[in-house]
TrEMBL record:
One Gene Ontology molecular-function label: hydrolase activity
Pfam families the UniProt entry points to: DcpS, DcpS_C
Swiss-Prot/TrEMBL GO biological process terms: deadenylation-dependent decapping of nuclear-transcribed mRNA
Organism for this UniProt entry: Anthostomella pinea
Protein name per its UniProtKB record: Uu.00g049210.m01.CDS01
Gene3D superfamilies: HIT-like, Scavenger mRNA decapping enzyme, N-terminal domain
Family: Belongs to the HIT family.
Record-level GO cellular component terms: nucleus; P-body
Amino acid sequence: MTTEESKRRAEALIPKFQFERVLNQDEAGRRITLYGQVDLQPALLILARAPFPDAHEYLSVLPANLRSITNLGNNDIYSWFLGSGGPILESDGEDKYADFKIDLICPCTEKHIKKHSRQGVRFVTETPETYRDKVRPYMQVNREDGRLNWVYNIIEGRKEVEDVIYRTPLGRDGDEGFLLLPNLHWDRKTLEALHLLGVTERRDLWSLRDLKKKHLPWLRHMKAKLIDATVETYPQTETDQLKLFCHYQPTYYHFHIHVVHVMLEATSSQSMGRAVGLDSIIEQLEAMAGDEETGMDSISLSYTVGEASDLWTDIFEPLKKLGRAPLPQ
């Protein structure tokens, strides 16, 4: 048998595969293992989504050639969709098996471009002094010019109202009000990729740096409510299948808590120094010596920053060149 004959014989096996059941699927839905038969012989078929080509002739026509686009929501400059590049199997007039989760940011800013560009990464240590003198003013600038409008739209019930899973009545609980809704990056179908956001009503907490010992009862209460609401909404999930964390640095400077399934693929957003467990924050605050005003602004934090980010180019790189940047702990 020639090489070409061998290749054609192998290729002919795929259409013969008779599907019986799913054996496994990764958390992000990019890889699935099927069990079935080929010519009455037991067989496994392992399917993985191929990397997107970076060829201009492919990418320039891809958006216009999606076979279906279904909008899941819109908020300020952000929109998110499900789309299909394959055959459409409709249910009630909608594509039942969309194979693309699509996010659109329009108009995007230079900060968005830097965040989403491929770049080198550095591991830095932010001391209390660096936070106070450099990072806190940087946060202030990044809270201005309407950059948190989309968050306020959610809090005030102007956008994504139908997506809210749980909330304390707006304004009733003052500084202790919060709500829970799906993260815009979750497809809202794949349970093992579940990703929710607990968003606080109060606007004076910008990040975990603002948490103090006086916030401990509220943090414990919010943790319990977020877990209960998640399990009630998604009963296939149990409490020990959830993890809660905060990002530092966060993408946006309004305090929020991530609620994710433990099987969610650990991408860079959950890496050491970026994701800080809520339980760890609570325990650290409990162990701190001092009065009720003692908080997370009094310790050093180490985390990763992209080389294209303003945090690196404007703060940590100049400190490094001056020999004043502390080594990561």
